[in-house]
Amino acid sequence: MTIKDTPEEWEIRATDTPFVGNKTSVRTDDVVMPDGTVVGRDYQVHPGSVAVLALDEADRVLVLRQYRHPVRHKLWEIPAGLLDVPGENPLHAAQRELYEEAHVKAEDWRVLTDVYTTPGGCDEAVRIFLARDLSEAEGERFAVAEEEADMELDRVPVADLVRAVLAGDLHNNCLVVGVLSLVAARAGDGLDALRPAQAPWPARPFEA
């Protein structure tokens, strides 16, 4: 048996968008269930995101500490950002985020994993990249603002991050999924067997 998620769309009788925000919105769909009943489903409509697990030559991951108001925490995270332009190439967006948030560039890029962050209540899809062969970016640093103005930057050994994840000390979705996927990939076919950086992404189609 092949274990694989498959696309499917149930009939929608009506839809409404009661809230439209700056980057996301909330939609209500009246969805026909298998027994014929119609049930309202509310969810956040999201443009999608990219995240970067940047791994240096000392086997450390580049991490950021940033305040996240909805959960009232400062979370350790990996560089990430929205796909601001419909159809935007996710690799280009990831390279931009790594530059803007950490002033770092990478020569080797691969797809680490693709996830839906909260499929029961949001359609956000995230592509997590593995970036290696790191170096300082050229030019001036990107001017940060709002929560990003308070960000801290560090490099933490992979083993320390794994221990912190399993101890319940780290909670950011992309960091947790990215670090554990890295360890799983190493234990399997190896990092060089990961998908290429321009691998198709049906959740958020793009032009290569």
From TrEMBL:
GO molecular function terms here?
hydrolase activity
Cite the PROSITE patterns for this sequence.
NUDIX
| Top-rank taxon | Bacteria
The protein's matches in Pfam families, at most eight in alphabetical order, are given as:
NUDIX
Nudix hydrolase domain span: 44-178
Give a yes or no for keyword Hydrolase in this entry: yes
Tagged with keyword Hydrolase: yes
Q: What are the entry keywords?
A: Hydrolase
Coiled-coil ranges per UniProt: none
Report the protein name in the record: NUDIX hydrolase
